[in-house]
């Protein structure tokens, strides 16, 4: 990395830090977090910690605080242990699914269809979203840690709008899956969606909603976004592509069950702790206090205290390793030289 400003495809110009300075901050965060059980230790790969730091403009105190909160959440929620059978009911209509194609950068693509909502349980909907994020991160290639969202508004109406779900979605993704979202495309949103979007933006960080692009099938200038990003032969016809196969729940269930088998490997492979790892019985057994005086008094000359990020920028498992923030499970291949390249299944 150069010593000047680093150009990021998602963040624009970030705070300039030399490679050794970045590593020093990563090491400091790891020191502040302390010794962790195996799975949480895997989550705290260099790639994952780096995502948390980037989301807070390399502010160690803020990154450590949010990372500790995510570690507590992962210890209690156990996103990597969610399996298809548990969320299959939520998936029946194809309201969220991982596509069988990637964009031209090799990024995992999550398709979302709000009009296909089939349940009323916010808890169930969020759990399925987390499952999809973990799976997406698990599927990311080693050189990618972000994903693309394709949101299809066909059939969408006012009854599909829920500020409660939107707020909870933004909280989970921005707090627990930082730097996981590369781009979100809203395809053919209706006019009445605009006021809702204005309200929804209040739940998102500026870096996040700047990643959101509006695309309309009858506007050639916006459709160029699709042509530049995807192979149109592989892209679904509902997004202007040539693939007319559509969503098949039976085939999708088979894919997810196969992916479920890979998840345990992601959380054990490549891990050889240098010191004995404490047994994890509950989040309460972790020394992850986020109320330290230093955190409370820390000020950031570049960020507001509200910076939370999926990406610092994500819309809605972390690393490079599944690149998932993460996706938390959502993705990531494990590289022995990084302990976990998709690192964190911290998995935006």
Give descriptors for this structure:
phosphatidylinositol transfer activity, CRAL-TRIO_dom_sf, 348 residues, 12 helices, Helicase, Ruva Protein, domain 3, five-stranded mixed beta sheet, two-stranded antiparallel ribbon, CRAL/TRIO_N_dom_sf, alpha/beta, disordered C terminus, CRAL-TRIO domain-containing protein, PI_Transfer_CRAL-TRIO
Shape-level CATH architecture of the domain at 92-269? 3-Layer(aba) Sandwich
Computed CA radius of gyration, to the nearest angstrom:
19 Å
Strand order of the largest sheet: 3-4-5-6-7
Strand percent estimate: 5-15%
Q: Given this structure, which CATH class of the domain at 92-269 is correct?
A: Alpha Beta
Total E-strand runs: 7
Characterize the biggest β-sheet.
5 strands, mixed
The secondary structure category is: alpha/beta
Q: Determine the CATH superfamily of the domain at 92-269.
A: CRAL-TRIO lipid binding domain
| Arithmetic mean pLDDT | 79
Counted by DSSP, the helix tally is 12
- Percent range for helical residues? 25-40%
Low-confidence stretches: 1-14, 270-282, 292-348
Order of helices and strands: EEHHHHHEEHEHEHHEHHH
The shape, in one word, is globular
CATH topology assignment of the domain at 92-269: Phosphatidylinositol Transfer Protein Sec14p
Report, as a whole number of angstroms, the end-to-end distance. 24 Å
